[in-house]
Amino acid sequence: MKRKFSLSVALLFLTIPVLLAQKKAQDSISKRCFVSTSAFMLYNFVDDPEPPSFYQLNLGYRITSKDILIVEAITWKYYAPIGIPYGPSYGDTSQNFPGYARNFGVGLAYQRFFWKGLYSTLHATHFVQQYFSPDKVKIQTGFQLFTTLRLGYHLNLFKDRFFIEPSVACTYWPINTNMPESFAVQEDKWPNCFLFEPGFNVGFNF
Fold it and tell me: Which of 110, 149, 189, 192 lies 20 to 30 A from 68 at CA?
């Protein structure tokens, strides 16, 4: 997602007026459940020769006002190693795979609130990875364990009915199996982690 970073910066700046106007939140668990998704799904509507086809759905349950469990379902495509850091090689098509990977994953996350809306979340997502050639022929299938440590801020809107969560994360994938050799040539050039990935979730409490 070449424009993901710039989009996230714009979305984060849009939350500043809400942050300044937000009143002190009361400690309440009147709405124990929520559904949420990533605002980056809007990128699916951008004309891009490398569409991310990114979709995400989360279901959360508030055990206490500070402790939350979340089940996540995620699917997306990527065309280059996801460990390429910000810099000259980030978004450089010369680093692309000879094709693309299509991921389907289900994960579990634990979210902990520390102060007002400030929180951290630990995610572990199990992905089935399908590798495709440039002409969309499936080559083989692998497995990836994708972990994320996220720091963000939760903002309630419209009498706690909706919320937004701008965040930043560090990701790490310790397991990445059965990658085609032609893909591994590119993958092995880069670390299996990524620092400072932006995030922006929107959700509905019930």
Answer: 192
